[in-house]
Amino acid sequence: MNDFSSGGVSPEVRDLLDSEAQRINSVSFISEDPVQFPRRFSRLQDIEIVAFLSSIIAWGNRKMICRDAERMLLLMDNEPYRYVMDEGYEDLDPRQNLHRTFFGEHFGYFLRGLKRIYEKYGSLDSFSAAVRAGDSKAPSWKLVEEMQKVMCDVNHGTFCSQCLPVNLQQTALKRINMALRWLVRDDGIVDMGVWHSIPKSRLYIPLDVHVGNISRELGLLSRKANDRKSVELLTGVLRSLRPDDPAVYDFALFGIGVEGKRPSSLLLD
Predict the structure, then answer these.
(1) CB 3.0–4.6 Å: which of 8, 16, 44, 191 could bond 3 by disulfide?
(2) Averages of pLDDT over each 10 residues, the chain, 269 residues
(3) What residues have CB less than 8 Å from 18, skipping those under 6 apart?
């Protein structure tokens, strides 16, 4: 068992993480993952809009997520930036179901906020730079805090937890951390590396139930809750292995166990 309290990771676990990250972080991963949608675009603003929308609805079955992301693109005529700036969302039925508990009213709320950001800053990356998210120890939480201010202001003082979590002291911020991995990591394989406001060394692992369980089985995490504190602890351990790029291990933690093999059996292979 690893001494995760001190950040120690056994050579066997490190080798497993490295090999699985390399195996999963491949072009073949793209076609079945929501990252495929922002990758269809070349203009920064289109990429940003689709990355955030695709990540916001990224809970539940991956096939359903991809199906509904495709539907959102069709709603925007596959021109997301034009759709946002032309306020196309104002014509959408607020009761239209887009994904599980995400409806037209939430879609409009989020895009209304993006329009305000684009009018003033030109891109979300420039907005992130302006609020100095990359200088924060927790860039994703800082970015969401600042985005919330804009979105609340432009939406009559209301918050929308379907778009952005409001309990920033507790939330693992899984979906936004995933979007930032797509936008920031720049190895040219799966992730796009189009943002410059946040260094990849300061990215955090997108923590969900599966990643949390695998991390505990590998001895990388002892905390039971899948909350912000656990994200910070887990990422801290992984950062000790790859200070420059801890989020690369998201591929490994996602992939381990998906095919039915438990981490213990993989360590014995």
Answers:
(1) 8
(2) 56 96 96 97 98 95 95 97 98 96 97 98 98 98 98 97 95 98 98 98 97 96 97 98 98 85 67
(3) 252
Q: Which residues pair with 97 in a beta bridge?
A: 103
Please give the pLDDT value at position 2: 44
> Tokens 């014509």, residue?
91
Produce one character per residue of 218-238: b if its CB has 16 or more CB atoms within 10 Å, e if not.
bbbbebeebbbebbbbbbebb
Residues 190, 194, 196, 200: what is their CA dihedral angle, to the nearest 10 degrees? -10
Q: What global pTM score does this model have?
A: 0.94
At 153, list the tokens: 């202001």
Q: What per-residue confidence (pLDDT) applies to 261?
A: 61
98: helix, strand or coil: strand
- Determine how many CB atoms are found less than 10 A away from the CB of residue 249: 26
Question: What local confidence, expressed as pLDDT, does residue 257 receive?
Answer: 80
Only one residue has tokens 């979300």, namely 124
In this structure, the chain runs to a length of 269
Measured distance CA(232)–CA(116) in Å, rounded: 31
| Region of residue 156 (left: phi > 0; alpha: psi -120 to 50; beta: else) | left
Q: Which residue spans within the chain are E strands per DSSP?
A: 97-99, 102-103
Tell whether the torsion through CA atoms of 225, 226, 228 and 234 is positive or negative. positive
